[in-house]
Specification:
With 65 residues, the chain is of the alpha+beta class. It has one domain. It has one helix and two strands; from the N terminus they run E-E-H. The protein has a two-stranded antiparallel ribbon. The termini are far apart.
Length: 65
């Protein structure tokens, strides 16, 4: 049986080489090559969560005849 090689890549930039770290950074079971990539992803994730939590703006029915 042949063993499979595990390939890890950065979720943000798609790179498979490390930058500024000795190992990939894990956040929510995702891997990132640098603290900068993790921060960008985390900020975007937070904005997405806030947008989902806000109720949609009420729409006004037109009073056209």
């Amino acid at each position: 049986m042949r063993s499979k090689k595990l390939i890890i890549y950065c979720e943000m930039c798609g790179g498979d080489t490390l930058s500024c770290t000795t190992d990939f950074i894990t956040f929510h079971h995702l891997s990132f090559c640098s603290p900068d990539c993790r921060e960008v992803y985390r900020d975007a994730d937070e904005l997405s969560r806030v947008a989902k939590e806000q109720p949609p703006a009420p729409t006004r029915a037109s009073k056209a005849a």
